[in-house]
Specification:
Layout lengths: L1 E5 L8 E5 L9 E10 L2 H9 L20 E9 L11 E5 L8 E5 L4 E3 L6 H4 L3 H13 L8 E5 L4 H12 L3 E6 L4 H7 L3 E4 L12 E6 L3 H7 L3 E9 L6 H7 L2 E4 L6 H12 L7 E6 L2 H12 L6 E5 L5
Parallel strand pairs: 8-9, 8-11, 9-10, 11-12, 12-13, 14-15
Antiparallel strand pairs: 1-2, 3-4, 3-6, 3-15, 4-5, 5-7
Subcellular location: Cytoplasm
Subunit structure: Homotetramer.
Keywords: Cytoplasm, NADP, RNA-binding
């Protein structure tokens, strides 16, 4: 089988495809034939600069290694002790740092869920990471509820597009920031109002918010405390909360991590099945080296609306 590997960090040309033996699952493992994977921020950052300094030691990859987190596929083989999955099951899941491969080997206790076989697996390849992060920031930590007014920063990206939908599903009023070109896209996802971050100052347009979900950087976060009402909440996924500012303003701040239980994943899959949650696909790329490199270039260029998905061709 083919697998994308890194032997050093840097520009897209450090990625290369190798032929390796297809793994055989042990008693408590499953082997998934990969259908599609999402291109995500960690792929770009780790490929370019190596593991994040804040990563726990046990999670830090060591060269040579692959990339990738979320995936969809079909179970190709199961170990003798596996009960949760069967050959032929359609699944979505997470496999930290090794989804850029035609087959993925996982423990049967991994964050994987079956999905109905009538669902298209291609968009589901980019479902889990963005949805998990959005769920943590919006529902679990943000405690979004009906009647609230919620601001989502970076509403057009892979995480933001999910955060808008999740916030809207609670019955909240949703405001989202993005570029003017992304406004129609964010409104189609459920945003009641959009703010052009390039030409408008959100601090002059909104106030007394119940929740701010920051999916951008530290500068936006620093300016967001002032628009949250006393007793409100602010969550952030890529910039640390300032505990002094939250305490002075009487608000709750949480640095959100997209860690899900299998039960939570099944709940999100059910929302997807009901059509209450979708994965907007920006562009698809075949699992070929030049196309993978281009997917990384396109992601880095910014202005993303939805997910970039790498799609695997049928293989023996």
């Amino acid at each position: 089988m083919k697998k994308m590997m890194l032997s050093q960090y840097g520009d897209v040309d450090v990625m290369h495809l190798v032929d390796v033996d297809r793994p055989t699952p042990a008693d408590h493992q499953i082997l998934v034939k990969t259908t599609a994977i999402g291109v995500n921020d960690p792929d770009i950052a780790i490929r370019a600069h190596g593991p994040f300094p804040t990563m726990p030691k046990k999670l830090k990859p060591v060269l040579p290694h692959s990339l990738g987190q979320d995936f969809s596929g079909i179970v190709a083989a199961v170990g003798s002790a596996v009960q949760r999955f069967a050959v032929g099951d359609h699944v979505v899941g997470m496999a930290f740092m090794h989804t850029y491969a035609e087959y993925i080997l996982l423990d049967d206790s991994a964050l994987v869920a079956t999905v109905p076989q009538d669902l298209d697996l291609i968009p589901l390849g980019g479902f889990l990471l963005g949805t998990a992060t959005a769920y943590a920031a919006t529902i679990r930590d943000g405690q979004a509820q009906a009647g609230q007014t919620i601001l989502v920063h970076g509403g057009a990206g892979g995480v933001g597009s999910q955060a808008i939908q999740l916030a809207k599903s609670t019955g909240a009023t949703v405001i989202a920031t993005g570029s003017a070109q992304q406004a129609d896209f964010m409104q189609a996802l459920g945003a009641d109002k959009t703010i052009d971050y390039q030409t408008q100052d959100f601090t002059k347009l909104v106030a007394n918010l119940d929740l701010v979900v920051n999916l951008t950087g530290p500068k936006t976060l620093a300016n967001s405390y002032q628009v949250v009402k006393k007793g409100g909440r602010i969550t952030s996924v890529n910039a640390l909360i300032d505990p002094i500012k939250t305490r002075l303003r009487g608000i709750t701040g949480t640095y959100s991590k997209g860690m899900l239980s299998v039960e939570e994943l099944n709940q999100l899959v059910d929302l997807y099945r009901q059509g209450k949650l979708t994965v907007p696909v920006d562009q698809e790329y075949p699992f070929e080296l030049a196309a993978i490199q281009q997917a990384h270039r396109d992601f880095q260029s910014g202005g993303n609306t939805g997910k970039k998905i790498i799609v695997f061709q049928d293989q023996d």
